[in-house]
Amino acid sequence: MKILITGGLGFIGSNFIHYILDENPEVNIVNLDGMTYAGNPENLKSIESNPRYKFVKGNICNYELVDYVLKTHHITHIVHFAAESHVDRSISNPDIFIETNIRGTLTLLNAAKANNIQKFVQVSTDEVYGSLSFDDPAFTEENQLCPRSPYSSSKTAADLLVLSYVHTYKLPAVITRCSNNYGAYQFPEKLIPLMIRNIQMEKKLPVYGDGTNIRDWIHVMDHCRGIYATLMKGKVGEVYNFGGNAEVSNINMVKFLLKELGKGEDLITFVKDRPGHDVRYAMNFSKAEKELGWTPKYKFEDGMRETIQWYLSNQDWVDNVTSGDYLDYYKKQYNSEK
Ligand code: NAD
Ligand code: TYD
After folding, report:
1. Residue 209 Cα to ligand 2 middle (Å)
2. Matching Gene3D superfamilies, A to Z (predicted)?
3. DSSP secondary structure string, 90-143?
4. Which atom of ligand 2 is nearest the CA belonging to 211?
């Protein structure tokens, strides 16, 4: 099995590469990544010289490059992670989200079609379903698609293109949709690593709005197992939801982190809400349990403690990835108190 992974230098892609190389000795990987601010070679340093791993720097929107990589490496499967992934950035600069998440996916689909790829896994998100109220039932795969941010709209468009290629060209593709991931190697613009970093530095903790918005949190390794199960057993044209069974409000998440790190709640600062902020996400993943034999293994508190420990022990990694444009960006966007 020769797999093209796109976006393998990012948070989930790099965890997936570590996971699959350990899990399956028959697998060879080519990682195509454009090395945006979110792609960090340090994430895969320990496997750089593994003969079953190759890295290609490049843009998924470049058809000639993608086609060349598929042909020269005799790729049989594609797992597509590469994306612009941060909702806040999609609000301030939507264009790149359209380019990478829609045009990039279309380019990969065309190249997959031309090269008779055996399976194409589109890694998508619960955010395509929109937003739940506090007492709605969790999202199932049957929910209407109702994206509400430029990020989730671009992911929805990509998912629909994938399904159209299944229908029109019989492309053997399948879609995974997952809730918010936590774990090692997450870029510290997302809630958990951002808050851990700020707590360590005793900086203010910017909670959007009143902090009651709820996310379901899944350990990244549980997500990776779900993607692997989909790659091996997922049925063409199907969608599979994955979740962590851990709905937590943002304010409770921040208080949990403060307690674990032994710091006081006076660091919490309520700031201007994110425009169009989705209220709640929750996932019904009974289809994945039934059809793929998958279930999340991590208990939230255990996974979170392990994750906090990882960030504390990898301060160099955090300093390295946050040394670029990110801090300026962050200061401009979210430093205003309510
Ligand atoms: P990330 O932002 O950490 O990583 C994205 C990677 O894609 C980076 O390595 C980046 O360099 C690469 N990339 C971006 N544009 C590219 C381009 N044009 N060409 C080639 N490479 C490019 O993202 P993540 O959090 O690891 O998310 C991975 C996937 O999982 C995304 O598709 C995202 O929508 C989806 N997802 C994420 C979460 C989450 O909680 N993070 C939850 C559900 C689904
Ligand atoms: P985030 O990690 O950006 O993921 P997503 O928007 O894809 O769910 O945000 C998780 C939640 O935390 C979301 O409701 C927004 C909120 N949030 C804050 O309150 N403060 C912050 O500084 C960040 C980054 C997020």
Report:
1. 11
2. NAD(P)-binding Rossmann-like Domain, UDP-galactose 4-epimerase, domain 1
3. HHH--HHHIIIIIIHHHHHHHHHHHTT-SEEEEEEEGGGG--B-TTSPPB-TTS
4. 19
Cβ contact 195:253 at 8 Å: yes
CA of 105 to the centre of ligand 1 (A): 12
For the CA of 243, the nearest ligand: 1
- Domain membership flag for residue 338: no
Q: Which of 33, 84, 88, 127 is catalytic?
A: 127
pLDDT tens track of the chain, all 338 residues?
999 999 999 999 999 999 999 999 999 999 999 999 999 999 999 999 999 999 999 999 999 999 999 999 999 999 999 999 999 999 999 999 999 999 999 999 999 999 999 999 999 999 999 999 999 999 999 999 999 999 999 999 999 999 999 999 999 999 999 999 999 999 999 999 999 999 999 999 999 999 999 999 999 999 999 999 999 999 999 999 999 999 999 999 999 999 999 999 999 999 999 999 999 999 999 999 999 999 999 999 999 999 999 999 999 999 988 886 554 544 454 444 43
The total of structural domains in the chain comes to 1
pTM, two decimal places = 0.96
Radius of gyration of the chain (CA): 19
The tokens for 307 are 């994750």
278 a catalytic residue: no
User: Does some domain include residue 302?
Assistant: yes
Instruction: Decide if 319 is catalytic.
Output: no
CATH number of the domain enclosing 294 = 3.40.50.720
Ligand nearest to the CA of 131: 2
Which of 91, 124, 199, 215 for a ligand 2 pocket mutation test, highest count of atoms within 8 Å of Cβ?
215
Write out the residue range of the structural domain in which residue 55 sits. Answer: 2-333
Could you say which DSSP state residue 281 is in?
A: -
Q: Which residue has the tokens 């499967």?
A: 77
DSSP 147-172: --SHHHHHHHHHHHHHHHHHHHH---
Residue 99 annotated as catalytic: no
Residue 269, in any domain of the structure:
yes
User: Looking at the domain assignment, is residue 18 inside a domain?
Assistant: yes
